[in-house]
UniProtKB/TrEMBL annotation:
Residue span(s) of domain Histidine kinase: 204-420
Documented EC number(s): 2.7.13.3
SUPFAM superfamilies per UniProt: ATPase domain of HSP90 chaperone/DNA topoisomerase II/histidine kinase, Homodimeric domain of signal transducing histidine kinase
TM region positions: 7-28, 166-189
Gene Ontology cellular component list: plasma membrane
SMART domains: HATPase_c, HisKA
Protein name per UniProt: histidine kinase
GO annotation, biological process: cellular response to phosphate starvation
CDD domains: HATPase (cd00075), HisKA (cd00082)
Natural source organism: Flavobacterium croceum DSM 17960
Length: 420
């Protein structure tokens, strides 16, 4: 429960931090846009003022003290000249001054015609020499002005956005990061829910199975002790089969429970120093009572000690040896040995079984995985949980486990345990 609260707190803090950064970034982008718009307006104003000064040159009128340039809208300007001028000269001055002030966007202009008392459209000037197919622009007439022209920047907004490309790319990247973060958290929460449901289902299922199994095993033991059953060979054999199969099913249920425990983060290991040779000898002795024909060699040095959870390490040995026995089409010969490499002890479990195709070696530690098309695979009981459990326990101990095929036949499972 404590870890769950910490997890939720981390999610909230991370989400709040990313949203805050995104909001600040958007505010900065808006401010940058406003500054860029102001800067553009100032450059246009100065450029048009220079155009007006050049149109005033060579005449007797003094340049007005009040600025002749008026901004009517964000993209629309009017310049009062108070003197007759030619369209060709105006266009030349506009191109020259806009180029000098680095105003690299399309514009169009119109002039007031005294005779017709209306604005006469001049031309559309494109920086790329590509004019739009249709030009329907209205240049409104202004009172109290006679000799003046108007300028419009049809692409001002897109031009300003282009100049802030870096800001928008950064904002988009932050939005993308936020979406990925939210999706990742959502996925983690969903997987956690599914994992909890799966674990609850397994715990409930195994509990419901173990109750009737215990009753069957108890009744079978009473039957076996019955004199009439003992004197009847068939009934005695049937009773033994029931007992053996019940024990086998009970072992499978225990294995499923162990897997459910390893999926739980709260599982703790009871690590202590154990004598590897003695523990392996005890496991071999127990297995050979049930499998008299199996040859198991213990080549572990007598003085080797490891820091491990005795219960789970014992289960690792049982699983490895049990697999070696099951996946063998001859009399099983198993050898458990060890050697030292730098700061590690390497335990190896070799067998003379049927081995595993090289293409499937990396998958044998996956949950519920059973090698497809392997010889006699359908006749071998199990859920594909044994080696998954072994891998889980090794990970909990921070050990490394690997598998490779033996020569000429069989499999070698290697377990690397640090001396520290």
């Amino acid at each position: 429960m404590y870890k769950l609260k910490n997890f939720k707190t981390i999610i909230i803090i991370g989400l709040t931090a990313i949203i805050s950064i995104l909001i600040v970034q958007l505010l900065w982008t808006k401010q940058a846009y406003n500054l860029e718009e102001k800067k553009f307006s100032q450059k246009v104003h100065i450029a048009l003022l220079e155009v007006a000064k050049k149109l005033y040159e060579g005449i007797n009128h003094d340049f007005p003290t009040d600025t002749p340039v008026k901004k009517i809208a964000n993209d629309y300007y009017v310049v009062n000249i108070d003197n007759d001028f030619q369209p060709e000269i105006l266009e030349h001055y506009l191109k020259t001054e806009f180029s000098r002030f680095n105003i690299n966007t399309d514009f169009e202009y119109a002039m007031y015609n005294c005779q017709s008392d209306e604005m006469v459209y001049g031309d559309y000037i494109s920086v790329t020499n590509e004019k739009p197919s249709k030009i329907n622009v209205h240049f409104p007439k202004h009172k109290n002005l006679v000799y003046y022209f108007a300028i419009r920047f049809p692409n001002e907004t897109s031009y300003l956005f282009a100049s802030l490309r870096f800001w928008f790319v950064l904002s988009f990247a932050l939005v993308l990061i936020l979406l990925i973060y939210v999706y990742s958290i959502y996925t983690i929460i969903q997987q956690k829910k599914y994992s909890e449901l799966q674990r609850d289902f397994i715990n409930n299922m195994t509990h419901e199975f173990k109750t009737p199994l215990s009753s069957i095993l108890l009744a079978s033991n009473y039957l076996q002790k019955n004199e009439k059953i003992g004197t009847d060979d068939k009934l005695n054999n049937y009773t033994k089969i029931i007992i053996n199969q019940t024990k086998k099913l009970n072992n499978h249920i225990e294995k499923i429970l162990d897997i459910a425990k390893t999926d739980d983060d709260i599982m703790k290991l009871d690590k202590k120093k154990i004598n590897a040779h003695q523990l392996i000898s005890d496991v071999i002795e127990d297995i050979q009572i049930k499998n008299e024909a199996v040859t198991i060699k213990n080549n572990i040095a007598h003085n080797i000690e490891i820091l491990a959870d005795e219960f789970h390490f014992t289960n690792i040995l049982y699983n490895l040896i049990d697999n070696s026995i099951k996946y063998c089409n001859q009399i099983p010969i198993i050898e458990i040995s060890s050697h030292e490499e730098k700061n590690s002890i390497i335990f190896e479990c070799k067998d003379n079984g049927i081995g595993v195709p090289n293409t499937n070696l990396q998958e044998i530690f996956d949950k519920f995985y059973r090698v497809p098309n392997i010889e006699n695979n359908k006749q071998i009981t199990g859920f594909g949980l044994g080696l998954f459990y072994v891998k889980k326990i090794c990970d909990k101990h921070q050990w490394k486990i690997s598998a490779k095929n033996n020569t000429p036949t069989g499999l070698i499972i290697s377990l690397m345990i640090s001396k520290k």
